[in-house]
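Format notes (please read before filing issues)

Several people have asked whether sequences and structure tokens are stored in separate files. They are not. Every record keeps both together, in the order shown below: the sequence lines, then the token lines. Line labels are part of the format and must not be stripped during preprocessing.
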Amino acid sequence: MSLHRDTYAVINLKYLKENIEQTYKKFKRPLMAVIKADAYGHGYKEVASYIKDIDYIEMFAVATLPEAIELRELGIKKGILILGAVPTTKEEIELAISYDISLTMISLDYMHHLQTLIDDQPLKIHVKLDTGMHRIGLTSKDELDELLKTIDHDKFILEGIFTHYATADGEIEAFKQQQEMFYDLIDPTEFKYIHCCNSAAMIYHQDNGSNLGRIGIVMYGIDPAGDESNEYKQVMSLFSKVSMVKKVKAGERIGYGLTYTAKQDEFIATLPIGYADGLIRKNQGRKVYINDSYFEIVGRVCMDQTMVRVDERVKAGDKVEIFGDHISLASMAKDLETIPYEIICLISKRVERLYIK
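Then the structure lines:
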């Protein structure tokens, strides 16, 4: 692949597959591959194409109808679930039906409105139960019973039921309460798919009731709790190259706002990467990896460029690791007081992806 910029991400598809295999060995049941947000920034086309023929990948999950349609047009034949709410227009619902896409049933009102939009062909749905996350979903046994009693089976196919855990990667008691509530509410015989296990639930907890697991962040080699992992392999690495190096004198100030002052005569390298690529301004003061050494980002990160204080060994054209083998996403997220999910999802489209197997 010919790269048009010196800033690029490397996606290791071999690691992706190994992470899926590792999770399947733990869970021992079919998986739903979550590839919303362009496969968490890794590229949905390449990711979906690479894993679509894995036998135990039962379904795919996305966040929006356009994402689901893109998968169908890519040639994905397996089931596709939209995890969030879809705009309730006749056009959107007809598209979902025609592309054989399953929607999430988020409330009774949502169901009653959708029934007015469906004509001949039924719509596949997965009922969402809110067991404590308090985003979307039915909140009680009464609501679920009413849905099951009043739903028009000529218009809907009850394909699945699920919930989402708020603390599967943390507070155990809250997790257990959600898990118990979910299984107290449902009758497993009424649904083909029962899925409440996200990545964290599959690798940290026991669950004997689900027959499908939603694999998201661990597929990309990232521990759900944001910790360093020896078990999963980070799929994405981000690189740039030094575009130029200049020597500045002691007392010279660097970048927008002149927020950094050279303490002595220093070498400053400029990299063609900035916040428009997803390297947010908060990275000022963090380090990158060049020629077996770590060097500090100085001055404010610009839209397209970043300055780094280096030594005389660093030259134009040298490879720069932003994150990868020497700087993990877990450590970067801790420095930035965020989570690895956010970092990878912010890597913009103009950063070319290089896929290796």
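For reference, the curators noted about this record: The chain is about 30% helix and 25% strand. The mean pLDDT is 96.
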